[in-house]
Amino acid sequence: MNIPIVYEDDWLLVVDKPSGLLVIPTPRNEKRTLTSILNDDLKSRNITYRVHPCHRLDRETSGLIVYAKGKSMQQKVMSLFKEKKIAKTYLAFVQGILLKKSGQLSHSIEGSNAITGYRVIEEKKDYSVVEVKPLTGKTNQIRIHFKQIAHPLVGETKFAFRKDYALRAKRTLLHACTLDFCHPQTNAKLHLEAGLPEDMQHFLEVH
Known about the structure:
The chain is about 20% helix and about 30% strand. The chain is of the alpha+beta class and about 210 residues long. Strands 1, 2, 3, 4, 5, 6, 7, 8, 9 and 10 form a 10-stranded mixed beta sheet that branches. The two termini are about 30 Å apart.
């Protein structure tokens, strides 16, 4: 099982999800997901509890995912997400150079308010490295917001036409890099980090 564990205690398991894995199956009922891999590993070691995801990341997105050991803890962590008590930070590579180097994107998504804070941390020749803090949790929010300002994520194919951009990547270059929250059981303050994955590191080096 090549899933890096970032944090673990009696109640929580936080892992660094590789790109290319679903968290849970879609209606197509895929057999191999991050959740099935983790639970199959527990079963193989004769561990009786199962882990339950407390939020989602897209298949292509890499980075931090919180799992709960048991359904009651899952509900507690999901409540923290719903109450916006868990701060999430992403790193995104976006096409082009942004005119405004920091701010908030607040275009509605499917009729609902959605807010994404961002800050450019590095500018390359054809793209920008951006620290992104979603303040709401709409599906595909980061990808949609940057497309709406004509700076889609590098590798984007769902919300932008690949042929419109010279810069290509094998996946959408988005990584969930930090989580900050108070532990729902112990009240300890947690700051969790996942370093940039190899493919994004490599992209930085060659572009």
